[in-house]
User: Which sequence fits this backbone?
Protein backbone atom coordinates (compact mmCIF):
# COMPACT_ATOMS: atom_id res chain seq x y z
CA UNK A 1 0.00 0.00 0.00
CA UNK A 2 1.06 3.57 -0.51
CA UNK A 3 0.18 7.07 0.59
CA UNK A 4 -1.15 9.11 -2.32
CA UNK A 5 -0.63 12.82 -2.99
CA UNK A 6 -3.81 14.83 -2.36
CA UNK A 7 -4.71 17.50 -4.93
CA UNK A 8 -5.49 20.93 -3.48
CA UNK A 9 -8.07 23.44 -4.65
CA UNK A 10 -6.78 25.09 -7.81
CA UNK A 11 -5.71 21.81 -9.44
CA UNK A 12 -7.94 21.16 -12.49
CA UNK A 13 -8.43 17.47 -11.59
CA UNK A 14 -10.81 18.67 -8.85
CA UNK A 15 -13.06 20.48 -11.35
CA UNK A 16 -13.79 17.74 -13.90
CA UNK A 17 -16.58 15.19 -14.14
CA UNK A 18 -15.14 11.76 -13.27
CA UNK A 19 -15.76 8.65 -15.40
CA UNK A 20 -17.69 5.58 -14.18
CA UNK A 21 -15.69 2.57 -12.95
CA UNK A 22 -16.35 -0.33 -15.34
CA UNK A 23 -14.85 -3.18 -13.28
CA UNK A 24 -14.73 -2.60 -9.49
CA UNK A 25 -12.92 -5.91 -8.90
CA UNK A 26 -10.03 -5.11 -11.25
CA UNK A 27 -6.74 -5.39 -9.30
CA UNK A 28 -5.82 -1.77 -10.10
CA UNK A 29 -9.13 -0.55 -8.63
CA UNK A 30 -8.63 -2.76 -5.56
CA UNK A 31 -5.16 -1.32 -5.03
CA UNK A 32 -6.49 2.22 -5.54
CA UNK A 33 -9.15 1.61 -2.87
CA UNK A 34 -6.55 0.27 -0.41
CA UNK A 35 -4.25 3.24 -1.06
CA UNK A 36 -7.12 5.75 -0.75
CA UNK A 37 -8.20 4.28 2.59
CA UNK A 38 -4.62 4.41 3.85
CA UNK A 39 -4.27 8.02 2.62
CA UNK A 40 -7.60 9.08 4.19
CA UNK A 41 -6.69 7.56 7.56
CA UNK A 42 -3.18 9.06 7.47
CA UNK A 43 -4.64 12.52 6.73
CA UNK A 44 -7.22 12.20 9.52
CA UNK A 45 -10.10 12.56 7.07
CA UNK A 46 -13.53 10.95 7.08
CA UNK A 47 -13.78 10.70 3.28
CA UNK A 48 -11.63 10.86 0.15
CA UNK A 49 -12.71 10.85 -3.51
CA UNK A 50 -10.59 9.47 -6.37
CA UNK A 51 -10.22 12.87 -8.13
CA UNK A 52 -8.58 14.15 -4.91
CA UNK A 53 -5.75 11.69 -5.58
CA UNK A 54 -5.57 12.64 -9.28
CA UNK A 55 -7.67 9.70 -10.53
CA UNK A 56 -10.78 10.89 -12.44
CA UNK A 57 -13.01 7.90 -11.60
CA UNK A 58 -16.41 7.77 -9.85
CA UNK A 59 -15.22 6.22 -6.61
CA UNK A 60 -14.79 7.41 -3.03
CA UNK A 61 -13.88 5.95 0.35
CA UNK A 62 -15.22 7.03 3.73
CA UNK A 63 -15.68 5.94 7.32
CA UNK A 64 -17.72 7.11 10.28
CA UNK A 65 -15.47 6.99 13.35
CA UNK A 66 -17.35 6.21 16.56
CA UNK A 67 -15.94 9.36 18.27
CA UNK A 68 -17.38 11.62 15.56
CA UNK A 69 -20.71 9.83 15.47
CA UNK A 70 -21.04 10.01 19.26
CA UNK A 71 -20.41 13.77 19.17
CA UNK A 72 -23.47 14.38 16.99
CA UNK A 73 -26.94 15.17 18.24
CA UNK A 74 -28.91 12.06 19.12
CA UNK A 75 -31.28 12.91 16.29
CA UNK A 76 -30.08 11.97 12.87
CA UNK A 77 -27.15 9.82 13.95
CA UNK A 78 -26.24 6.76 11.94
CA UNK A 79 -23.91 4.27 13.57
CA UNK A 80 -20.14 4.13 13.17
CA UNK A 81 -18.90 2.49 9.96
CA UNK A 82 -15.43 1.10 9.21
CA UNK A 83 -13.62 2.33 6.06
CA UNK A 84 -15.28 1.29 2.81
CA UNK A 85 -15.52 2.18 -0.87
CA UNK A 86 -18.55 3.47 -2.78
CA UNK A 87 -18.32 3.11 -6.57
CA UNK A 88 -20.47 4.90 -9.19
CA UNK A 89 -22.71 6.49 -6.52
CA UNK A 90 -26.12 8.04 -7.18
CA UNK A 91 -27.88 10.18 -4.56
CA UNK A 92 -31.58 10.89 -4.09
CA UNK A 93 -32.67 13.37 -1.40
CA UNK A 94 -35.21 12.01 1.09
CA UNK A 95 -36.95 15.39 1.15
CA UNK A 96 -36.25 19.03 0.33
CA UNK A 97 -35.08 19.64 3.91
CA UNK A 98 -31.52 20.95 4.12
CA UNK A 99 -29.31 21.43 7.16
CA UNK A 100 -26.30 23.65 7.69
CA UNK A 101 -23.30 21.72 8.99
CA UNK A 102 -19.57 22.39 9.35
CA UNK A 103 -17.34 20.70 6.78
CA UNK A 104 -13.70 20.58 5.92
CA UNK A 105 -12.00 19.17 2.84
CA UNK A 106 -8.59 17.51 2.53
CA UNK A 107 -8.18 19.49 -0.73
CA UNK A 108 -8.81 22.80 1.12
CA UNK A 109 -6.54 22.30 4.14
CA UNK A 110 -6.85 24.40 7.28
CA UNK A 111 -10.34 25.78 6.58
CA UNK A 112 -13.87 24.83 7.39
CA UNK A 113 -17.26 26.26 6.63
CA UNK A 114 -20.99 25.82 7.19
CA UNK A 115 -22.50 24.18 4.09
CA UNK A 116 -26.18 23.38 3.40
CA UNK A 117 -26.82 19.70 2.61
CA UNK A 118 -29.88 17.49 2.28
CA UNK A 119 -30.77 16.23 5.76
CA UNK A 120 -31.61 12.72 4.57
CA UNK A 121 -30.60 10.88 1.42
CA UNK A 122 -30.79 7.48 -0.19
CA UNK A 123 -27.68 6.48 -2.09
CA UNK A 124 -26.94 3.60 -4.40
CA UNK A 125 -23.75 2.31 -5.99
CA UNK A 126 -21.40 -0.65 -5.84
CA UNK A 127 -19.11 -1.85 -3.08
CA UNK A 128 -15.54 -3.01 -3.69
CA UNK A 129 -16.78 -6.52 -4.52
CA UNK A 130 -19.02 -5.10 -7.24
CA UNK A 131 -22.17 -5.77 -5.20
CA UNK A 132 -25.06 -3.29 -5.18
CA UNK A 133 -25.34 -0.89 -2.24
CA UNK A 134 -28.56 0.90 -1.29
CA UNK A 135 -28.62 2.87 1.96
CA UNK A 136 -30.46 5.72 3.59
CA UNK A 137 -28.27 8.15 5.49
CA UNK A 138 -28.68 11.06 7.91
CA UNK A 139 -26.33 13.21 9.97
CA UNK A 140 -22.58 12.95 9.31
CA UNK A 141 -23.16 9.91 7.08
CA UNK A 142 -25.38 11.94 4.73
CA UNK A 143 -23.01 14.92 4.74
CA UNK A 144 -19.94 12.83 3.89
CA UNK A 145 -21.66 10.96 1.04
CA UNK A 146 -22.92 14.25 -0.47
CA UNK A 147 -19.50 15.92 -0.08
CA UNK A 148 -17.64 13.01 -1.69
CA UNK A 149 -20.14 12.51 -4.52
CA UNK A 150 -19.81 16.24 -5.30
CA UNK A 151 -16.06 15.66 -5.81
CA UNK A 152 -16.95 13.22 -8.63
CA UNK A 153 -18.80 16.05 -10.39
CA UNK A 154 -16.05 18.64 -9.92
CA UNK A 155 -17.89 20.41 -7.08
CA UNK A 156 -16.00 21.66 -4.00
CA UNK A 157 -17.89 22.70 -0.86
CA UNK A 158 -17.41 26.48 -1.35
CA UNK A 159 -19.56 26.10 -4.50
CA UNK A 160 -22.43 24.93 -2.24
CA UNK A 161 -22.13 27.74 0.31
CA UNK A 162 -24.78 30.42 0.73
CA UNK A 163 -23.17 32.50 3.50
CA UNK A 164 -19.45 33.14 3.15
CA UNK A 165 -19.22 34.69 6.61
CA UNK A 166 -19.55 31.11 7.91
CA UNK A 167 -16.05 30.10 6.78
CA UNK A 168 -12.75 30.31 8.59
CA UNK A 169 -9.41 28.84 9.51
CA UNK A 170 -9.69 25.92 11.94
CA UNK A 171 -7.47 27.56 14.58
CA UNK A 172 -9.43 30.84 14.58
CA UNK A 173 -12.81 29.10 14.72
CA UNK A 174 -11.55 26.97 17.62
CA UNK A 175 -10.39 30.13 19.44
CA UNK A 176 -13.43 32.30 18.93
CA UNK A 177 -16.26 29.78 18.51
CA UNK A 178 -15.09 26.78 20.56
CA UNK A 179 -18.61 25.31 20.70
CA UNK A 180 -18.70 24.65 16.94
CA UNK A 181 -18.80 20.97 16.03
CA UNK A 182 -16.04 19.71 13.76
CA UNK A 183 -17.72 17.53 11.16
CA UNK A 184 -14.41 16.28 9.78
CA UNK A 185 -12.62 16.59 6.46
CA UNK A 186 -13.42 14.72 3.28
NI1 LIG B 1 -13.42 17.19 0.07
Assistant:
Amino acid sequence: MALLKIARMGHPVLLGRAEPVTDPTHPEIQRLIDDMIETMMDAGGVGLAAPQVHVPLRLFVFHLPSARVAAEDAEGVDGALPPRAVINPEIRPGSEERRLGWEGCLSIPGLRAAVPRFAQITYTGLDRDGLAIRRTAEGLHAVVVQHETDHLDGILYPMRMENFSLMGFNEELARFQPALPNAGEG
Helices lie at 27-43, 66-71, 139-152, 170-176. The CA atoms of residues 103 and 183 lie 5 Å apart.
